[in-house]
Design brief:
It is built from 14 helices and 17 strands. It has about 425 residues and is an alpha/beta fold. The strands form four sheets. Strands 2-1-3-8-7-6 form a six-stranded mixed beta sheet, with helices on both faces. The structure holds adenosine-5'-triphosphate.
Length: about 425
């Protein structure tokens, strides 16, 4: 197969902005989730290239051409996936040729590669597969070590355009082996490093206010926030000529953000609330158990998502029915009768009973109304009590997680709030 020419770095400025195009009717119909574009955008970011736009178009000539034409106007480099197969609905090749104003020509090395691919599988090659060897004149094939469809490199109105198959594994191999080295050379050593801080206990808008100056547009590092189920992520992207400078920019921004947000920041990058709680428990050689009602084991699931959690997590009781709250965790039936299952005394008794029966140093309990039914004026949906038993004390607190919130949201936030309470307790008493 013909090897690709390097990206013409002399005539083109270093690429800064990319447009990522995903082609496939199954994508626009929502039958397949477009993971290729997200992964490409992340890899491009690692090379210091910002994916400024994502476009998804069906397997139809006109929309594909329109997307390519628009991308060529907007981007320094274009990345396309999908529609390179041998069937009639695979139109990417034709659209590229039309937009480049260049006829499709058979590439002998690609033909040889496709024939060899089938020969290695000891399967007859359908003649139809030879359309995959067609390349717009002036373009180049990108070799595909794991499939039949070669990728393509063409220039569209002067903008470099890399086209890769839609199959994620093929796309990844070809991007990493063939495209990334060329882009790295074209970028000329500039790097973009990313870091993410995780926060719990303050809303996104309050966090946004506290770091508003850092979030202004056009700054380097660039800072932005995201929110998911009550956990706020603060994303920091730093661009510099070399990794140490970019890392120094990240460090400085992280220091400032931590100083402004205090212990609302619970971790960074791959850390989670449960992994941080695990580290704190491990550091003091302590153990934990859980008793859950409305979260039905979610807290235990989060804790055991962390590899090695068996060193500090003893286990949990799922005490959904009142009889089980009494039977397994020893909650006095009179407390349930008098205060209701969703109440502070019951949360306290659950934590205390679990603590004692499982013999752990700490115990967390959760009882609440996750909805959508079951709420009342006095006890609305979203009312959750979290209990914490420590070696010296047991207490509970009420959370109002919002009658408008979904069941999923209420359960997740209740579990996170329980973990966060223990995190803060361990961090504060540990000091
Ligand atoms: P092939 O020659 O293997 O058919 P292709 O370039 O024609 O490659 P498509 O036919 O568009 O690729 O897609 C093949 C499969 O790859 C799809 O059925 C889908 O499962 C997956 N796929 C395609 N595009 C994406 C995408 N953007 N994100 C995730 N998966 C995708």
């Amino acid at each position: 197969m013909r090897t690709m020419n390097p990206v013409p770095t002399t005539s083109n400025p270093p690429p800064r902005h990319a447009v990522v195009i995903a082609i496939g009717t199954e994508l626009t119909l929502g039958q397949t989730v477009d993971t290729n574009s997200a992964r490409l955008a992340q890899w491009l970011a690692g090379l210091g290239i910002r994916a400024a736009w994502h476009v998804t178009v069906p397997d139809e000539l006109a929309p594909i051409r329109a997307a390519l034409a628009e991308a060529a106007r907007r981007a320094d480099v274009i990345l396309v996936t999908g529609g390179l197969g041998p069937t009639d609905d695979d139109l990417t090749r034709q659209a590229l040729a039309d937009e480049a104003g260049a006829p499709l020509e058979s590439d002998p090395e690609s033909v040889a590669h496709i024939r060899a691919f089938f020969a290695a599988l000891k399967r007859p090659m359908p003649e139809r597969n030879l359309v995959q060897a067609l390349i717009p004149r002036g373009g180049r094939a990108i070799s595909n070590p794991v499939g039949t469809a070669p990728g393509l490199y063409v220039e569209l109105h002067g903008t470099p355009c890399y086209v890769l198959p839609g199959v994620p594994a093929e796309m990844e191999r070809m991007f990493q082996q063939e495209v990334a080295p060329r882009l790295r050379a074209a970028v000329g050593g500039r790097v973009l490093l990313q870091r993410r801080l995780h926060c719990f206990g303050l809303g996104e808008s309050v966090i946004g206010e506290r770091i508003a100056d850092l979030m202004q547009r056009g700054r380097n590092p660039e800072v932005g926030t995201t929110a998911e189920l009550g956990i706020i992520g603060v994303r920091i992207n730093a661009t510099a000529d070399a990794a140490p400078q970019a890392a120094a920019l990240l460090d400085e921004a992280e220091r400032t953000i931590r100083a402004r947000l205090g212990d609302v920041v619970f971790g960074r990058d791959k850390q989670t609330l449960s992994s941080v709680v695990g580290q704190l428990l491990t550091a003091r050689g302590a153990t934990l158990s859980t008793a859950e009602s409305c979260t039905g084991g979610l807290l235990g699931k989060l804790l055991t998502d962390v590899p090695g959690s068996s060193t500090y997590y003893l286990g949990g009781l799922i005490t959904y029915a009142n009889a089980v709250k009494s039977g397994l965790a020893g909650v006095p039936a009179a407390d349930i009768e008098r205060h209701g299952a969703v109440s502070e005394p019951v949360a306290v008794a659950l934590a205390a009973g679990c603590h004692q029966r499982l013999g752990s140093d700490f115990a967390l309990s959760i009882t609440g109304i996750a909805g959508p039914a079951g709420g009342s004026t006095e006890k609305p949906v979203g009312l959750v009590y979290v209990g914490l038993a420590t070696p010296t004390d047991v207490s509970a607190r009420a959370l109002q997680l919002g009658a408008w919130s979904s069941r999923r949201m209420i359960r997740a936030r209740a579990a996170y709030a329980a973990l966060d309470w223990l995190r803060l307790h361990l961090a504060r008493v540990g000091r």
